[in-house]
């Protein structure tokens, strides 16, 4: 996979370089998301897809990269260590160029929410991007976790980018019983919880790494709005599918939102504005 620069107002696009016949281009956009429980997959009208894009999308959003072409020769983005850290580090080392064009953002104008059972996802008006998240798991090592964060400037890089995806040992056992997740060890690219036990390379990077990763996922899924958001996202037991349903609800009514040309003051509060390699965490 290669992430290449793109012109102003290009947006984020994926190109399947292994697809030689037909349309290989897929926009990173909410309305081409195919519903899956465990990851975010986008698919074009020709049926060409790319899955597990959420960590890469979060890295792009968190680094303030609004235009890029992602070339990939497979149907899934590399999982790496299960976080967005390697993407972020590569972007910051390569350097991020400001483009001589205004930055546009999706401004949420009134509250929008969706609910499935106990899971809730909401968007509220805000002057910058904020995420609040609450999770509740039976596993003692996870339990209930809550975190609130203003994503202005480099907060994503400092606070969230190194938090890895996680799963329960019971889920790993179920997947293996069905012939899945047979290659390698799950704890190489995820944190595995089994009751009070934690299996993770190097141990936990944060005491509340699970809720931080949920916020990372939400950041990536929300970037499928097609632009940075001026909004306050609140998630309670929410996941990829529910966050996409929230975007669909938002865009279903033009009175819910508007596209705004950011003032210099607004642009300075967007995720990734002014971020630099010195803010990258010392990953375990």
UniProtKB/TrEMBL annotation:
<dbReference type="InterPro" id="IPR015870">
    <property type="entry name" value="UDP-acyl_N-AcGlcN_deAcase_N"/>
</dbReference>
<comment type="function">
    <text>Catalyzes the hydrolysis of UDP-3-O-myristoyl-N-acetylglucosamine to form UDP-3-O-myristoylglucosamine and acetate, the committed step in lipid A biosynthesis.</text>
</comment>
<keyword id="KW-0479">Metal-binding</keyword>
<keyword id="KW-0862">Zinc</keyword>
<dbReference type="InterPro" id="IPR004463">
    <property type="entry name" value="UDP-acyl_GlcNac_deAcase"/>
</dbReference>
<keyword id="KW-0378">Hydrolase</keyword>
<dbReference type="GO" id="GO:0046872">
    <property type="term" value="F:metal ion binding"/>
</dbReference>
<dbReference type="Pfam" id="PF03331">
    <property type="entry name" value="LpxC"/>
</dbReference>
<comment type="pathway">
    <text>Glycolipid biosynthesis; lipid IV(A) biosynthesis; lipid IV(A) from (3R)-3-hydroxytetradecanoyl-[acyl-carrier-protein] and UDP-N-acetyl-alpha-D-glucosamine: step 2/6.</text>
</comment>
<keyword id="KW-0444">Lipid biosynthesis</keyword>
<protein>
    <recommendedName>
        <fullName>UDP-3-O-acyl-N-acetylglucosamine deacetylase</fullName>
        <ecNumber>3.5.1.108</ecNumber>
    </recommendedName>
</protein>
<dbReference type="GO" id="GO:0009245">
    <property type="term" value="P:lipid A biosynthetic process"/>
</dbReference>
<keyword id="KW-0443">Lipid metabolism</keyword>
<dbReference type="GO" id="GO:0103117">
    <property type="term" value="F:UDP-3-O-acyl-N-acetylglucosamine deacetylase activity"/>
</dbReference>
<dbReference type="InterPro" id="IPR020568">
    <property type="entry name" value="Ribosomal_Su5_D2-typ_SF"/>
</dbReference>
<dbReference type="GO" id="GO:0016020">
    <property type="term" value="C:membrane"/>
</dbReference>
<dbReference type="InterPro" id="IPR011334">
    <property type="entry name" value="UDP-acyl_GlcNac_deAcase_C"/>
</dbReference>
<keyword id="KW-0441">Lipid A biosynthesis</keyword>
